[in-house]
């Protein structure tokens, strides 16, 4: 089986203004949208770093696709699990909020239906 590599578009790091300033050592490397009335980054002035925009979005045929070409399908319940296409190009990913018991139950159903699960429960 040939392993193909999916190339997604890159985007710059989105950080809060003054992230690298020496007087702002407590500012963590994370993104929060700017809300200040006179904030230069909110007004998209040059030199203040990039902000997330719709233009950074990837093409629809590569979105939710892993580097190995497998399409990730988010699963919250049994109906969504059984809707995952069977075969080598799709795999189920359990939602973060599922309980351990629910994940184990869905994992047994996926094994019976021949569906690959990416984030399986560790025993």
Task: Label the structural class.
Answer: alpha+beta
What is the N-to-C order of secondary-structure elements (H for helix, E for strand)? EHEH
Mean pLDDT: 87
Specify Rg, calculated over alpha carbons: 20 Å
Question: Which residues sit in consecutive blocks of at least 5 with pLDDT less than 50?
Answer: none
Q: Report on the biggest sheet.
A: 2 strands, parallel
How many domains would you count in the coordinates?
A: 2
Strand arrangement in the largest pleated sheet: 1-2
Helix percentage range? 10-25%
- % residues in beta strands: 5-15%
The DSSP helix count reads 2
- Cα distance, first to last residue? 30 Å
Q: Shape, please? A: elongated
Number of strands: 2
What does this structure look like?
The two termini are 30 Å apart. The protein has a two-stranded parallel ribbon. The chain is 15% helix and 8% strand. It has helices spanning 78-82, 100-113, and strands at residues 71-75, 90-94. With 123 residues, the chain is an alpha+beta fold. The protein has 2 helices and 2 strands; from the N terminus they run βαβα. The protein folds into 2 domains: 11-57, no CATH class; 59-123, no CATH class.
Quickly list its features.
2 helices; 8% strand; two-stranded parallel sheet; alpha+beta; 123 residues; 2 domains; 2 strands
Compose a concise summary of this entry.
It is built from 2 helices and 2 strands, in the order E-H-E-H. It is an alpha+beta fold and 123 residues long.
Set down the secondary structure blueprint:
Blueprint: E1 71-75, H1 78-82, E2 90-94, H2 100-113
Parallel strand pairs: 1-2
